[in-house]
Amino acid sequence: MKVPIYGQKTKYSYADYLKWNDDERWELIDGVPYNMAPAPSSKHQEILGNIFGIFYNYLNGKPCRAYLAPFEVRLSEHDDDHETFHVVQPDLSIVCDRKKIDERGCKGAPDLIVEVLSPGISAKRDKIYKFDLYEKFKVQEYWIADPHNENIEVYTLQDDHFGEREVYTLGDQFHVSIFDDCEIDVNHIFKEPF
């Protein structure tokens, strides 16, 4: 079954979401359904692959795990699917608490989330709606990778709010706040594959 046209119901829950067509990818933010972009660009996938590769190698033998989209992250104050109104599919989620992982994805906030911008409305969703959502549910670190400008915006949770934005560009290196000994070279993220 396809998602009903928004407006027939004022707010959709995760229980509603589970009934929708599996051929399409959706996110829910405050009960509002958002259709995911049909297919990411090759550049988007290369950047995401580079970031995943860095974390995959770093996390080898450690308790945290990296998960690529499609991977559902359910954010709610309640255990009931009918009371869960936020379901997102970040490009990359790093989860250190294994109790949050179940057969459907992650229930609760990942420790680190990466979104790679795509042209159009998804950029607004990543920079405003998801930013607010990730801050509210206390994601420890949030990255927004911009393929066009070849930079990474990093937000770190401080006193329950994201601190000042840090922007890293080609030639920069920075430390991941949740891992003391993990240093990121921005050139490795935006490098050409061939």
From TrEMBL:
It holds the Pfam family Uma2. It comes from the Bacteria. Residues 15-186 form the Putative restriction endonuclease domain. GO terms for molecular function: endonuclease activity. Keywords: Endonuclease, Hydrolase, Nuclease. PANTHER family: GLR1098 PROTEIN, RESTRICTION ENDONUCLEASE DOMAIN-CONTAINING PROTEIN-RELATED. This is Endonuclease, Uma2 family (Restriction endonuclease fold). The lineage of its organism: Bacteria, Bacillati, Bacillota, Bacilli, Bacillales.
